[in-house]
């Protein structure tokens, strides 16, 4: 049992995740666009994530360096196999948390809360939350 307390930054520094919360947000959005069959462009990411184009370009360089995307200057953005794999999990995680919060709060939209929470739950917790949500919805 680990009963040592840290600040949020301390917990993040103890983790070994390559992706930061911001990187996850970009990758999740790119995978949303990719799944619809649309082309991924800096301008669209900028618009959908409500950030400036230079911020998108900077993040794309980081994601490219880590092998999640291939970004051509002034060109198309391609999500790599590694990026698609990570992105599918990020979308699953988002949907599980959003669905749980909607069921819990008896609402149709808990987007903001889901976005705030999703970066801090382990894969095990997300899977268990998925099972719990399915039971809640089925009335068990």
**Gyration radius from CA atoms, angstroms:** 17 Å
Terminal-residue CA separation: 31 Å
Helicity range = 55-70%
Strand residue percentage? under 5%
Total count of strands: 2
| Sheet with the most strands, sense and barrel status | 2 strands, antiparallel
Low-confidence stretches: none
H/E order of the elements?
A: HHHHEEHHH
What is the general shape?
globular
Please work out how many helical segments DSSP would assign: 7
Average pLDDT level: 88
Which structural category fits the helices and strands? Answer: mainly alpha
Which strand order does the major sheet show? 1-2
Structure description:
- The chain has 140 residues and is mainly α.
- The protein is 65% helix and 4% strand.
- It contains 7 helices and 2 strands; from the N terminus they run ααααββααα.
- It has helices at residues 8-14, 21-35, 42-49, 53-65, 81-105, 111-117, 123-138; strands at residues 69-71, 77-79.
- Strands 1-2 form a two-stranded antiparallel ribbon.
- α2 (21-35) crosses α5, α3 (42-49) crosses α4 (53-65) and α5 (81-105) crosses α7 (123-138).
- The radius of gyration is 17 Å and the shape is globular.
């Amino acid at each position: 049992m680990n009963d040592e307390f840290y600040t949020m930054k301390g917990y993040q520094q103890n983790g070994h995740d390559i992706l930061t919360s911001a990187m996850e947000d970009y990758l999740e959005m790119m995978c949303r666009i990719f799944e619809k069959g649309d082309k991924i462009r800096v301008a669209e990411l900028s618009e959908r994530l409500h950030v400036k184009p230079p911020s998108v370009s900077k993040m794309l360089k980081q994601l490219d360096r880590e092998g999640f995307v291939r970004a051509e200057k002034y060109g198309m953005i391609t999500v790599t196999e590694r990026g698609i794999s990570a992105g599918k999990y990020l979308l699953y995680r988002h949907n599980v948390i959003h669905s749980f919060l909607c069921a819990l709060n008896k609402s149709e939209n808990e987007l903001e809360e889901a976005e705030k929470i999703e970066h801090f739950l382990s894969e095990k917790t997300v899977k268990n939350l998925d099972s719990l949500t399915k039971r809640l919805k089925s009335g068990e």
